[in-house]
Model the fold of this input.
Amino acid sequence: MRDEAGPGFGLGPETRGLVAAARRAFAQQPGVRAQLEECARRLDQPLRVALAGQLKAGKSTLLNALVGQDIAPTDATECTRLVTWYRNGAAPRVTAYSMDGARADVVVRRGRGAEGLPGAHGLTFDLSALRWNSARPREVDHLAVEWPSAELEQTTIIDTPGISSLSRDVSARTSRLLTPGGGAALPSADAVLYLLRRLDAADVDFLEQIGAGGNSGHGASRSMSNAMGSAAVHGFSGVGTSGPLGVIGVVSRADEIGAGRIDALHSARDVASRFAGELERTGLCQSVIPVAGLLAFAAATLRQREYAAFEELATLPVDELSAALLSADRFARPDLPLPVPPELRAHLAARFGLFGIRLAVTLIRLGVRDSQALAAELTARSGLDELRTILDVQFAQRAEELKAHSALTALARILAANPGTPADALLPRVRTLLADVHGFAELRLLGHLRADELPLPAADLAELHRLIGGAGVAPHLRLGLSAHTDLATQREEALAAVHKWRSRARHPLADQMMASACSIAARSAEGLLDILHELPTTPFPSLRPYR
Done:
């Protein structure tokens, strides 16, 4: 995920000012001041995105696919039962931390696969012989992985244990990380990718916990409902967002939904659309995207020997290969007269899955002639490119706002837990800012437009999508103008958009959903007018509530 420069509807400067004022008010209370200093530091750190979901949802595999490197163990070892933080670093290093801050270096081992290829399960973190920097052994609380990666420069990724683990202690680690509850805890994640294989009560319950973020923010939720007016219907408002501000659902292991058939992702898209409708009604998720994580990661790390094996398989008659691919075990049987050795076939099945093998062979039969082209085609068909685009638009380009929301949430908890100081005067403003996160309403509407179009002409629908940040958050992108367009022209376009969409929202034939969407678009245009009248030294002014 990359962070694109350009103004947005961020809350950064005012949040920094509020945190600084609170630090001055608590100058004589070291414990509270330390919490506030952590709030301030978070605003300057990379965006934190957590991967969450039930057991074996494919979190580690998706992480590897997003980073484009094999850095997260995917087999069911002790490591997958721990919270693991992945950050950019000068050299690969894995460190184990205990609850009291003691640390120990972790040995990293790589498995080997067929014909000298890397193993299908990649690397393993060996926790069997840790040497702590203290006198006595300790229990591992979490792991920290530093790895040279452009994807991790702007984003820290947190891989969490499955929420449905048979061990309550394992599931509780994820709950503590993402739903810290009351008190003054700073949210560990600014945004969440929630992986779904199905949508059951455990998923909905946990997403509700993430949205509630504990017991704080209920007053803010009521304020938001009033401030947003008609935009608070149909799940477009930010009601109950005291947890991480951004939540995107991923239908993981999407290739398995269609039983590995060549059209599996089409089936997965139908499932994602159904999940999106359910989650939109409950207001728990902004978007739901199907991704074949195993295929995406295998495509990102495709080796020439694997491509050559697919070429050999493509020479087989279609019926013969189809019969061999009835199951992974059958495909790897040594008695099958196939041109690829059984060990390599087993490797391909573990790395690409049956869907990936069928797709790769089909693409080669259709004319793909080298490994680089095949990797690009597989990546595009895995759904990863679409997910990257959504992460860029909804997370990376709104990183300032997401981080500010986390800091404001913690600040509200700190002030509420420590009353009776001059800092009490800051709390109403903090709650107002938490209630008035217009960017959240934009994200929710973007998710709705992705699942279900509004009854608008195609040109107007494209304008609405662009205006609320669907193509990027910079003013010229929202207005559909060149980056070199002068400010006066941009202001004229923004003002015209305000009038157009405010008029649409008030149209007597507009239903609630249409009126809500048009109100959000009008408010986005009003925010652009604010930005375009500001001096360039303040690129992230707060967005005033619409009244």
Q: What stands out?
A: Residues 1-8, 214-235, 237-241, 535-547 have pLDDT under 50 and may be disordered. The CA atoms of residues 99 and 141 lie 6 Å apart.
